[in-house]
Amino acid sequence: RLFQYVAEAKLFAQPTFSRLLALLDNYERMTGSSETLTAEEEHEEEEFLAAVFGTPVMATLTSFFLAKGLYPSAAAFRDDVKAMWFGMYSRSSGAALDSSGFEHVFHGEIKNGKVSGCHSWVQLYELEKSGQLNYLSYSYDGPWPSFPDVLALQFRWNSYLKSVGSIVLGSSPEFDLALYTLCFKARPDQLCHVSLGGEAARIQTYSWTSSFYGDGQRFVASAYPVSP
């Protein structure tokens, strides 16, 4: 097993975890299948963002971006986070609105018979708990003696293989979203070098270039930690 023990009762009762879990059943994992955003699902997105933006982690990132002049207000930054992460686009050459940055990174997708994205340890935990995840091996376990840690691994989601994947293990949803948003804005489409707990880490982000929102803004295509 990938997970021997998770303090589920303590962790998943926290607002950001519980609202992330509420989002994970909203997505069609197969690319080419259109996503339908219901009023309830949009409400769940808003509740997740409200919980995330109520944390010290996201308050720190907001203050940083405002100090750098990247946004005119905290509200403008929040609106942009929703657009860049939850705005939908097509990974099926326009056949369907079937993807978003959030779905790709935090839930995962099946494309061309393989797992694509799926960089959230919470999603992997839920998949393993439901019998859908077959953990095969790991290729990198980071130097952090406690959580969050970085893990590169191989697994199957039902019959679909993820041959090389990576996650920040044991992190909170707000930590992942803030870290990936920081790197997406500061170092898009390249390696973003950060220090986590005194150890060097690298985050890779990609922007979606086939469609845009607002004034030429790009959606998140992917974001994940890079292992040596």
Automatic annotation (TrEMBL):
Query: Which cofactor is essential here?
Result: Mn(2+)
Pfam families reported for this sequence = XendoU
Please give the InterPro entries that the UniProt record associates with this protein.
ENDOU (IPR039787), EndoU-like (IPR037227), EndoU_C (IPR018998)
Write the Enzyme Commission number(s) for this entry. 4.6.1.-
**One MF annotation (Gene Ontology) recorded for this entry:** lyase activity
Q: Which catalysed reactions does the entry list for this protein?
A: ribonucleotidyl-uridine-RNA = a 5'-end dephospho-uridine-RNA + a 3'-end 2',3'-cyclophospho-ribonucleotide-RNA
**Ranges of residues in domain EndoU:** 1-228
Its family remark reads:
Belongs to the ENDOU family.
* Protein name as catalogued: Uridylate-specific endoribonuclease
